[in-house]
Design a protein that fits this description.
With about 50 residues, the chain is α+β, with helices and mostly antiparallel strands. The chain has one helix at about 10-20, and strands at about 1-5, 25-30, 30-35, 40-50.
Length: about 50
């Protein structure tokens, strides 16, 4: 499955670590900055398997 995470960089990193505890994370991208105004959020793309 493919998952897009939109969060702060720290939150995204924490979530990926939690995901690794319950699914197999095949790949995760580097954080990409969101381009909406002065957002502090980033996007991270994760590919995971159950």
């Amino acid at each position: 499955m493919k998952i897009r995470i939109m969060a702060t960089e720290d939150e995204a990193a924490q979530l990926i670590e939690r995901l690794r505890q319950v699914v197999t994370v095949v790949e995760s991208s580097e954080p990409y900055p969101n381009h909406r105004g002065d957002s502090v959020l980033v996007r991270v793309y994760v590919e995971a398997r159950l």
